[in-house]
Amino acid sequence: MECVVQGIIETQHVEALEILLQGLCGVHRERLRIHEICLKSGPNLGIVSSEVRLLCDIEQPEPTWTVRHVGGSMRGAGAEQISVLIRTVVESKASKNVLRLFYALGYKLDHELLKVGFAFHFHRGAQITVTVSSVNKMLKLHATDDAVPVTPGIQLVEVTAPATSENYTEVVAAVSSFCEYLAPLLHLSKPGISTGVVPTAAAAAASLMSDGGGTTL
Amino acid sequence: MPIKWVLHWQPNAGTTASGQIVNEVTQCVEGMNGVKDGRWKATLTFYKPMLRDQALLVEFPRDFLGISLPEQPNKYYFIIRGQRLVLEADSTILTIMDKLQSYKSRVSLNFEGFQYQLGDFQLRVGKVSPTHSETLRGIVMEVEYLPISSMEKSRQMMEDFLEIWQDAVSKRSLPGHFMHIEPNFADFGLGDQYTSQHTAVQYAIVVAQVIATVQAGQAVRN
């Protein structure tokens, strides 16, 4: 399982967000360059249709592949009251011919994306990962060198933390409290519930840029 | 990692593999001063697609199989032999396949037995039987040469060892012999340096032989 929230930020404020994250996490950012291939089962395969994502980390000298399955999210009155989405996620690292295998099994390409940006991994009540990336689409099949932004001028921010059925309430609390620190720059909510950019972003970014993140927001 | 050859028992025409042959082979290893070094087990599973229309079965691979190996307990291997495709993944891939609900297990075979240390060689003799059944379907033997990981550099050493081995086994006048079929690893995109993917491919070849032998035996009896 993982806890996740998402938000968006204007590209002009990303540098300020990075300064803030650097100050909050105390770790260095990692560059991110992920080629994400979304596959769907062919029309006749499976009792119900299924979807799987192949993530190729092309930031590494030797690209690495991960198979990722995102399952259903937690439902019910309790789940609706919390501001963080809890969903099942299973990942498996795989060798480089994984796309060929899924094609051979009858899966078809649905869409592909290139996410370029950076990530912070740190521990703050939970093992939290923050990614800030520009989401790009390819004009030609697999042409990652030839990608254009899906939403120019806007970047995606995602905060995730692994959780189990035993500890998710603590993880949700840790993620929620971390998100509050970012509130002046962006608002984070459950995926699919977009709340847009925040009006205080420009002023907060200007303040961060002028003193390098020393001010407590 | 050390190179390994996986051999299968090829029974003489009209005979089948039996527990008695496994015992004799085991005694043979012990007679060569092999030191028993615990149990081992590998499991191979054939998968079939879950289809809404069974008439479309021909459009999907018939020889899609998965294998778990004791040498890499946290990994799982998928092979589609007809397409010369081998994949290594974390064993969590099994949970993903389960959630996808697109393929399910058709039949699983266990390869299990004892392993032995014999100088620089490690030998594993194993019975092949369907899971949840004691029926012996075949016999396999792994010969691993610990100091070398290059297929080419170890070839002479392996051939010499097998010659000595076949000599020792032949003294017992068993109704068959161990056979080594070397796959063309390059077809699977594998190089000279031995990996567990090489082992997975060898098992895919061996299991095909074991099944062919069982089927041939049944044809003779019928």
UniProtKB/TrEMBL annotation, chain A:
BP GO annotations? regulation of transcription by RNA polymerase II; termination of RNA polymerase II transcription
Taxonomic superkingdom = Eukaryota
Give the principal location in a single coarse category: nucleus
Keywords assigned by UniProt, alphabetized: Nucleus, Transcription, Transcription regulation
Where in the cell?
Nucleus
PANTHER family, alphabetized:
MEDIATOR OF RNA POLYMERASE II TRANSCRIPTION SUBUNIT 18, MEDIATOR OF RNA POLYMERASE II TRANSCRIPTION, SUBUNIT 18
Q: What is this protein identified as?
A: Mediator of RNA polymerase II transcription subunit
UniProt organism field: Parasponia andersonii (Sponia andersonii)
TrEMBL record, chain B:
The question of whether Nuclease is a record keyword is answered with no
The places in or outside the cell where this protein is found are: Nucleus
Q: Which residues form the signal peptide?
A: none
Q: What GO CC terms are in its UniProt record?
A: mediator complex
GO MF annotations for this entry?
A: transcription coactivator activity
Q: Which GO terms describe its biological process?
A: regulation of transcription by RNA polymerase II
Main subcellular localisation: nucleus
Q: Which UniProt keywords apply?
A: Activator, Nucleus, Transcription, Transcription regulation
Subunit structure as annotated in this protein's UniProt entry: Component of the Mediator complex.
Task performed by this protein: Component of the Mediator complex, a coactivator involved in the regulated transcription of nearly all RNA polymerase II-dependent genes. Mediator functions as a bridge to convey information from gene-specific regulatory proteins to the basal RNA polymerase II transcription machinery. Mediator is recruited to promoters by direct interactions with regulatory proteins and serves as a scaffold for the assembly of a functional preinitiation complex with RNA polymerase II and the general transcription factors.
Family of the protein in this entry = Belongs to the Mediator complex subunit 20 family.
Would you tell me the protein name for this molecule? Mediator of RNA polymerase II transcription subunit 20
- Please give the organism: Parasponia andersonii (Sponia andersonii)
Question: Which gene holds the coding sequence for this protein?
Answer: MED20
